[in-house]
Write a structure and sequence with these properties.
This protein is globular. The N and C termini lie far apart (36 Å). The protein contains eleven helices and no strands. 74% of the residues lie in helices and 0% in strands. The protein is mostly helical and 189 residues long. The chain has helices spanning 2-14, 19-22, 27-39, 41-45, 48-62, 67-87, 93-103, 111-122, 126-131, 138-150, 159-184.
């Protein structure tokens, strides 16, 4: 089971080692990796070698001039974040949050990339937002939240971008309140 998943992931991620190979990344490989990261985030998060390969691949894909490759990178990141959210895996949280916040959308990103970015923001754990908002990072978090809010309305925003931004705000609020209520012993039931 997990050995097959690990070998599939290693094979798939080795395809991403050079930019030349990344540009020919088959869609089936991206879908396979998304499934692996979603269903088994611990494989990447509990192994430094896999984490480093994942991080390098995401940075390479998301820094590409090709919008399709950027979208693949964002899909892979979101899959890991979603899997991490479902399993409540907190290993490497600081590294995951740093990676996510360092690559999530730029002002010139395409509409599909912004949509995927907002979906990824919504996949961050509430503890990510609360733990990493110390005095040095609060400006960074405020910047990200303001940027998300600015996409919730206004001219020139596509429906999918507005929808994803609004959902991200709801997810972030829900996740943060859930963590605060758990810390205070309050049940949401």
């Amino acid at each position: 089971g997990s050995s097959l998943i690990e070998h599939s992931m290693i094979y798939s991620m080795k395809l991403n080692q050079t930019h030349r190979r990344v540009s020919r990344l088959p869609k089936i490989t991206a879908k396979l990796l998304c499934s692996i990261f979603f269903s088994g985030p611990k494989i990447v998060l509990n192994n430094n070698k896999y984490w480093n390969t994942f991080e390098d691949s995401i940075k390479l894909l998301c820094s590409s001039k090709n919008s399709t490759l950027q979208q693949i990178g964002l899909q892979l990141l979101e899959s890991l974040l979603q899997g991490r959210k479902i399993t409540l895996e907190e290993n490497k949280s600081k590294d995951v949050v740093h990676l996510a916040l360092s690559i999530l959308p730029t002002a010139d990103a395409s509409g599909p990339c912004r949509t995927l970015s907002f979906q990824a923001y919504g996949s961050l754990l509430g503890s990510d937002w609360l733990k990493y908002t110390d005095e040095k990072q609060i400006g960074c978090m405020d910047h990200h939240l303001c940027m998300i809010l600015s996409h919730c309305s206004g001219p020139g925003r596509t429906t999918s971008v507005r929808s994803a931004a609004c959902k991200a705000v709801g997810d972030i609020c829900s996740n943060c309140f859930l963590v605060e209520n758990q810390n205070e012993g309050v049940s949401l039931d």
